[in-house]
């Protein structure tokens, strides 16, 4: 009987035990807190998978609330919490209240199912805790593990735990890009695409040399953990060296991390970043150079001022500026060097020197050299031009070339082309027997006559001429010069001038690539004025054309060079005004043009002719992914004439002058220019007196000649009479000039002649004037007065004629 009762009692215990532990819902009761837990909603948990463990904490204390709740998971090889072994529930529970929280767990596949849960909380200012062990039976252990592995989950790795390796991938929304001298931001997203959590993730970049400036203690980033299927964002920031090369750089990333068991892993990934560099190295140039006064006289003190510009974007450091005044000037204080610690990019410093011109210095334009250096460059030299007033010499010009037209694009080998230009007579007399001959060398053959004859060309008249050519088959791809020789006769003098033109020829072998090397030519050019005057400024307009149909050019520098110099001073014929003779074009697309304008000064002693200007092109272009450079030249001509210069003196007038009597005025005039004047006419213009007999036609007026003008006028009204002496003439270019000299004459009434004998002639003094009869006596008094006036007029006329004859003789002596 007792045996049966004992068996029944044991069966009841087994049933109760099976009922309690057959469910994954576990209840733990304490004095103040109850704990219940459900694993994966009672569904099956497979090995090496994550699941949610739902824990409910209930406050059974009727006397007060509990807070600062912490859930502490015991260490086991089967269940590892993703959020760590100690996790917090941010809630305060009043009496009778409960809270349910899900905790992500990882099941390793071990057979152990027990897990201890400890709840620590704060009640009445004191911390208390309750600990319960639960069994998670709805698991499917990994049968291939070969037995239990009950080692600690946070061990240093070893055994089968190293199989739980997270897989990390690096991504970014776009390639990071930064500018040299700035800061680059590299945002990265690290994704864990495995089923296992990654912990203590450290990302360390390997930075290339001379690209970044490291101003940080460390360059790596650390992420505490990245759960399976999750991602984390990190961001690197680095300062880029201002001189870093523009390029796309590969940045290796070393990634070190651990799994939940503490096993260490190392991966290497690569990312790419783009660095752009728009910085230009420091480049010093001199601009806006001027003297005060503008024109210097021998022995005069003057100030030379210019702006020292840094045309780069990077600063120029330790700048030294020195002045070499040459043999014509000297520095007053003997201090020629200036120092600047730095000049920022695209900024300038004003530099002033006080100089003095040497005595008896001849006229002309003289060169003063500015010597510069800085940390990036040394031995930089820049010429400045100082104008000294001086005498002019005889020059003249008759024929100039205008409107030069050449092909705008490259001409293929064995293809005909045409060049044309206008021949204009800018002189004052007709040019005779004009012959134009074109010469192009043995590679460029004429298709038309290469000699053209023009019988005559009147002043101001122009004639268009054109010539056809064809290149040989074996030409090279380059610019070929074509020279036009213009010969003509002016009086007994034979004049010869030259005009150069450039034509770009594309060789036969380069037809397939069609301008593999892009060529640059001057497609159009003009000057304002069209005919340049010596000693004056002019504006040069130029159009540069990229003849290539497929390639662009970059970083193009254009330098204008004139090989001919002044015979007197040795200086260049043309000098830029407040600028340099160099242009810069950032980029020129295929077939694209770029217009440039330059103000230049022509030295006063420049000979009258067409000067050849060479444009030197230096640029870069891309071919097969490589950057190449090229240098080529083009030429064009600038015609120069000497300006007319007639000097006149003030008008000499008598003071006072009498009404009704002839008044003589005079003025002297001189040809101070270097060209002969034509159609010179001198006359008087006035609204106060008659000027019809005042014209004096001189005609041609030679260089260095002098003459005087004298005219007689008769005043008709008292007071102030105004007039002007007008000089009109034409210069060598046929341009008419007018010079006026005003004068004023004060006219008064002539005093009446008083008869000393109030009555009749002295012989009739005894005769009664009232007596009638007989004829009046002869008027001897009036005849005597008239005769005296006539004698005075004759004397004045003789003096004037003698004076004029004497001046004519002096002029003949000067001509001899």
From TrEMBL:
The chain crosses the membrane at residues 780-801. Keywords: Membrane, Signal, Transmembrane, Transmembrane helix. Gene3D superfamilies: Immunoglobulins (2.60.40.10). Residues 148-158 have a biased composition (Gly residues). Residues 404-488 form the CARDB domain. Residues 1-28 form the signal peptide. Residues 139-158 are annotated as: Disordered. It comes from the Bacteria. Pfam families: CARDB. This is S-layer domain-containing protein. It comes from Thermoclostridium stercorarium (strain ATCC 35414 / DSM 8532 / NCIMB 11754).
